[in-house]
Task: structure prediction
Amino acid sequence: MTKTGLVLAWLLAAASAVGGVLGYVQAGSTASLIAGTVAGGLLAVGALGAARGRMGFRILAIAVALALLARFLPVYFRKPQLWPAMVMIALSTGTFGFSLIGAVLDHFRPEPPRA
Result:
């Protein structure tokens, strides 16, 4: 995963968790609280594992980013607002894109010669 992808994954994790808490505080939405904190936690775990070079964790971060993108795209088209839809779409797209770029680059990176 690229450094930019990691930063975006951490930002997306924070935005998801904060958005879940705000949804609960402002609208009393328990579903927002649970979904936001679970998605944020999964992204944080994925980013932490991806930073250590684990492919499975990178896939986890990509999957959660895609799920959040699928969740917030229809919301944006119904009611275009900066928060939460546009912020979450931008962070999800960035996390997905830079994580995928990092995966492709890692796949085609030559292995170091063995001694």
